[in-house]
Specification:
Strand order of the largest sheet: 11-12-10-13-14-9-15
Oligomer: single chain
Distance between the termini: 31 Å
Radius of gyration: 30 Å
Number of strands: 21
Length: 733
């Protein structure tokens, strides 16, 4: 076992090792050496106390301004109050029955103070904080330890503040810095002017200047980028060596017949992307491609043409959708577009047509049995469905292409289970309109070949988006309902979207009870902790209030499948004026006559959801309008997110905003949250140039040395990074 794999108990003792493991997930010497500082403070540069957030665990460098010992009046004991300052703001420290601390906590001294920010008498304070004085006049170990260099501030915990963790790191550096093996080949370091790993790790923990810190971070960014790119390059090489059936299509087949019936011309972007996909389908190696397209850019049409190309080549294609509503919508729209080409084998079907079947979990037994029989026999060239397609009982005669719509709604195991149904690995096309952070990260890292649709078809209108501050300006909300009535008066239709269904409490919380002083306007309640607005209650209030007289219906996931399908059919036929729904209408729903959407409690939705939802309007020749209703105050992070959505229709830009807020997630694992990110210093957004260059270097190295036989340190580092779960994830992804 490498010295870096040794448990921390040998280095820092059982008690401290347990705290490191429990609170920071640091278990080995290597974990500790790679636990980098979050930021640095310079001697004499005090922390800005105005920026501290309540409930945040902080470490601040500040100067003691005032110390007061206050005896309790009604009982024995005392309270020591210490006021620290950065020269502008102030922060109170309070210690109970610890008057003896007056001897060391004296005005003028500087120190590091750590604790959880609370509020008492409207002032921020730290109760019983941990601290370490570094007053130069006093001399001693603290001043000497930090003299002449930056002070690292580590991600820490209440049990182990930053400076105590720093002492642990110092011990690890002293004893084990020489045990680090450098994964970057020497010629690569020379080519890009990078310092050795041991020097970088020492400087990231013990920088003498900002220049030292920057040199260390540059090298460590390269480590993360290059090692990950090597893992992905090995996977791409393995994928490229796997066999797959080439799907080259035929002349005068199903695709040509379909194209001849299209009532419009493909956009230049659609033609270009179809060319990229067709070229890859024609190879004898499995395609692994992401189709990124703006809402309404025609991704489904591109995917359908690829599916028809596969059928022309003797194979079958499936379209996997995340919800029954979307699967039914896809099935209905594809059958309508194909006409008699979708009725292969029937009396009224085209001679070159094929069957298009639907499979969902709620279908009746006879319908499910027939759909599965058609897929297994090969009679159904196209299958559309939900997770039901993944079940073991579902078989295909020759599965050639898997299309996954809104791929972030499916786990890797689910996609892999469907791909495993082919005799050889089928080609894979995943589609999304607004990539969630992990998708953006994997795209930047080069895991997926990417096709982009950024051109809207002719006749599509832009969508205007506005934030409606329900509490600050209740008249704005009243105006929103007037706009809905105006659009309906013009013969158009509207959506109202709510975060929950409403016929039962959410997360065990009690329903909010109406009170006499509740504002009349929807969404303008004064109770800050109220549950999210619901479809059921909102629809009732709308019917009795601002939308009285209009044809209002509801749609949510707990309706019976037949009921959901009937509501959507009637809405599509124009028999419903306003559809009050949950996010079941988020993707795929296409009703060109819908021109306005009101999203209640919009701050409770993510950036991607909001962008997807508003894409349901403006799908025809009339302009679209999306109103984001929120009670969040101006200046809050939630309102800033809504303002960002209102400011742009660019899905790529919104995905970057989402990524900035949530971070990349674990780019080599299944976590969708940045909390578990395996990236410590590398930023997908800020370091794209390093990532791209590292990809070129890794691809070249893996091509010359696929097993990394000549690079044992890199192979060892990669093995440590790719535990069994992550290796399996990469293999499946």
């Amino acid at each position: 076992m490498s010295a870096l794999d040794e448990p921390l108990t040998k280095l820092v003792g059982d008690r401290t090792a347990k705290v490191l493991a429990d609170s920071l997930k640091l278990r080995t010497v290597g974990d500790l050496l790679h636990h980098y500082p979050r930021r640095y403070v310079e001697r004499g540069q005090l922390t800005s106390l105005d920026d501290l957030e309540v409930d945040e665990h902080v470490t601040v460098l500040a100067r003691i301004e005032k110390v007061t010992l206050i005896p309790f009046k009604a009982r024995k004991g005392d309270r020591l109050e210490v006021v620290v300052t950065d020269g502008r703001g102030r922060l109170s420290l309070v210690f109970f029955n610890q008057g003896w601390r007056q001897k060391e906590l004296r005005p003028g001294a500087q120190g590091l103070f750590a604790g959880k920010v609370g509020v008492f008498n409207r002032s921020r304070q730290l109760a019983s904080p941990d601290y370490q004085l570094i007053d130069e006049e006093e001399g001693g170990g603290a001043a000497e330890q930090f003299a002449g260099r930056l002070i690292p501030v580590y991600p820490a915990s209440a049990q182990l503040p930053s400076w105590k963790l720093s002492l642990c790191v110092e011990t690890a550096l002293t004893k084990h810095l020489g045990d680090l093996r450098d994964p970057l080949p020497e010629e690569l370091r020379t080519r890009h002017d990078l310092i050795p790993l041991a020097e970088a790790v020492e400087l990231i923990h013990r920088p003498r200047s900002q220049a030292d810190r920057e040199r260390a971070q540059e090298r460590l960014r390269w480590d993360e980028a290059f090692v990950l790119q090597t893992a992905l390059a090995q996977r791409r090489a393995e994928d490229g060596a796997r066999p797959a059936f080439a799907r080259k299509g035929v002349a005068d087949g199903l695709l040509d017949a379909f194209d001849a019936r299209l009532p419009f011309t493909l956009t230049e972007g659609q033609q270009k992307v179809c060319g990229e996909i067709f070229a890859e389908l024609a190879t004898e190696h499995p395609m692994h491609r992401l189709l990124q397209g703006e809402v309404g850019s025609g991704k489904t049409l591109v995917a359908l043409r690829a599916m028809l190309r596969t059928v022309d080549s003797g194979g079958q294609a499936v379209l996997l959708a995340p919800t029954e509503v979307l699967a039914q919508q896809h099935h209905r729209s594809i059958v309508e577009m194909m006409g008699d080409l979708a009725e292969g084998g029937s009396l009224f079907g085209s001679e070159i047509g094929t069957k298009v079947v639907l499979l969902t979990g709620s279908m009746g037994v006879p319908a499910r049995r027939q759909a599965m029989l058609d897929m297994a026999s090969g009679d159904a060239g196209l299958a559309i469905g939900t997770h039901a397609l993944i079940e073991d009982k579902v078989q295909f005669q020759d599965l050639g292409l898997v299309v996954v719509d809104e791929q972030h709604r499916f786990g890797v195991e689910q996609r892999d289970a469907l791909r495993a149904k082919g005799e050889q690995p089928p080609h894979l096309l995943v589609m999304t309109a607004t990539p969630i952070p992990r998708t953006v990260a994997m795209t930047v890292f080069g895991d997926l070949e990417t096709s982009v649709l950024d051109q809207l078809p002719a006749g599509r209108s832009p969508i205007s988006t506005h934030v409606v501050p329900a509490l600050e300006k209740p008249n704005f909300l009243a105006r929103a309902w007037e706009r809905v009535r105006e659009e309906v008066g013009k013969g158009h239709q509207a959506y109202v979207v709510c975060p929950r269904i409403g016929d039962e409490p959410e997360d065990g919380k009690k329903k909010r009870k109406a009170t006499p002083d509740d504002p009349e306007d929807l969404g303008a309640g004064s109770d800050e902790k109220r549950p999210p607005l619901s479809v059921v209650e909102t629809a009732e209030k709308l019917v009795k209030g601002p939308l009285a007289g209009l044809r209002v219906e509801i749609l949510h996931g707990r309706l019976a499948p037949e009921a959901k399908d009937e509501v959507m059919r009637r809405f599509s036929a124009g028999e419903v004026d306003v559809l009050v729904a949950t996010t079941v209408i988020e993707v795929g729903v296409n009703v060109p006559n819908s021109t306005v959407m009101v999203i209640m409690d919009a701050d409770r939705f993510g950036v991607s959801q909001l962008h997807q939802l508003r894409g349901r309007v403006g799908r025809g020749s009339a302009a679209g309008l999306c109103l984001l209703v929120s009670e969040m105050p101006a200046g809050s992070s939630a309102r800033a997110r809504l303002d960002a959505v209102a400011a742009t229709l660019d899905g790529f830009e919104l995905s970057r905003i989402d990524l900035e807020q949530r971070r990349e997630g674990d780019v080599l694992g299944q976590a969708q949250s940045g909390v578990k990110s395996s990236l410590k210093v590398l930023s997908v957004l800020e370091d794209e140039e390093i990532i791209a260059t590292a990809r070129e270097e890794a691809t070249r190295l893996v091509a010359a040395d696929p097993t990394l036989a000549a690079h044992p340190a890199l192979r060892e580092t990669l093995a440590g990074l790719l535990d069994e779960d992550r290796a399996a994830f990469l293999d499946k992804g």
